[in-house]
């Protein structure tokens, strides 16, 4: 009898201890998240004030790094990309003026609030659902400081889902998305992961965050991808038909009747001759000038965007892809800012 009572006590004591530990862990994780958001909030407030002090703007692009790579299906190197892109933007090998003549050193064109501390949060046991929510909340904090508009430095392509979610929730309605990529990233749950970088646009479309999704540069797609594209009504522009589609793509008008345009650029949309530093090398892609012609001729109000999937661990010794990613960021910033 006494043994049974002892076992019952020990069992209930273990349950209480486990519950206490779980509660303490949750409290700690919440504090870490709040500290992370506080840092983004205060930086965004400062950058908004800097734009005002410089004379104000209707829209000013604001860099936010999201160094997340663990949702990659092959290599996790994109987690290391944001600091390398920043280094390339300001390295001094070229001047800080964009092709349209905008000066990046002007805070009305480009500001920077740093990175969401993804790895630090993961080290505290924070899992994907809360990570995605924190990314969304960070984007909203940037958008709270008018006229800042988020320009996201990835990271793998899984980050586009929480970013687009934040943008549409903040603006109160869907956007049109212009997506450059070698892959459609629209698997329902690639390898069982609903947050996979290969599933981000399935999450976006099923939640109604986009009215139109245009995918440009695709050259690696299977039956599931085509089924999903038909299911969601995606406008697909494959590389094998690019010559025929070029004129249409270089005269796009998007965002009318919705809350604006979101531009997502996966670096592997480019032929690896232009951008070898990516995880998934797919020959036969767009040239850099193809992307620029489409982007620079685009008519529409770009409310946010991202440049993702640059993998520094696969880049050439001279940092070629870092410079390409930086150039994409520079020119997208120029297009956003006004």
Q: Any descriptors?
A:
10 helices, globular, 8-stranded parallel beta sheet, single chain
Helix content: 40-55%
**What's the alpha carbon Rg, rounded to whole Å?**
22 Å
SSE run: HEHEHHEHEHEHEHEHEH
* Main β-sheet description: 8 strands, parallel
Number of distinct helices: 10
Uncertain regions: pLDDT < 50 for 5+ in a row?
none
Walk across the major sheet and give the strand order. 2-1-3-8-7-4-5-6
- Proportion in β-strands: 15-25%
Q: Write down the overall mean pLDDT.
A: 95
Termini, distance in Å?
80 Å
Q: Give the class from helix and strand content and strand pairing.
A: alpha/beta
**What form results from the Cα inertia axes?**
globular
Give the beta-strand count: 8
Pathway: Nitrogen metabolism; urea cycle; L-ornithine and urea from L-arginine: step 1/1
Protein name: arginase
Organism: Adiantum capillus-veneris (Maidenhair fern)
Keywords: Arginine metabolism, Hydrolase, Manganese, Metal-binding
